[in-house]
Amino acid sequence: MSRGSESRVEDVDKMKGSPDSYVPSKRRFMNTPAKRNEAYIPTEIEHVANIVTHGLWVLPSVLGLFFLVYQSSSSPEYISAIIYGLALIGLFSVSTVFHSVFYSGRFRLLKEILHRCDRAVIYIFIAASYTPWLMLKDLEPEAWSSELCWFVWVMAICGIAYQNLFHERYKTLETCFYLIMGIIPAAAVMHMV
């Protein structure tokens, strides 16, 4: 068990009898919620699950990138395929490495850097997921597809900057960044269907 997980489990043991305590069987799968402005510390099982589930998708992501590039017949399709494919590979690769280092309980500085990278690649992936829709589909003139493509990437950059400046603080603001990035371009995509 990693050092962070052990201390969190000890905290749960101390809380026995309090209204917020967990049933011992649940403790094995999920630790107590993080305190305000602190990171959640996953259990050993959560770490292993994250490593396995994220690691399993690295190779299919690489194959997906090659497939998308192979199927591209125009410059915008090729660019969209590269952007989306690299973001998908980055998402699963960075997450797998981050959770592996975190699980090891060593390399504290590397863990902190990878944690920030893990969060950054989520912003990149959200933007990369909308890029093909906004680049390749013809939208109504009032749908602002080109502006929305820029907007989602500017939001990704702002989210990455925020994450680096205020890492693990102001979690509500971080959630708002994710929601705004996800919902606003979705409004334009809804006009496509």
Automatic annotation (TrEMBL):
Residues 1-17 have a biased composition (Basic and acidic residues). InterPro entries: AdipoR/HlyIII-related (IPR004254). Pfam families: HlyIII (PF03006). Coiled coil: none annotated. The keyword Zinc does not apply. The chain crosses the membrane at residues 51-70, 82-105, 117-136, 148-166, 175-192. Residues 1-22 are annotated as: Disordered. Its main location: membrane. The keyword Transmembrane helix applies. It is found in: Membrane. Keywords: Membrane, Transmembrane, Transmembrane helix. It is a multi-pass membrane protein. Belongs to the ADIPOR family. This is Monocyte to macrophage differentiation factor 2-like isoform X2. It comes from Limulus polyphemus. The lineage of its organism: Eukaryota, Metazoa, Ecdysozoa, Arthropoda, Chelicerata. The gene is LOC106468442.
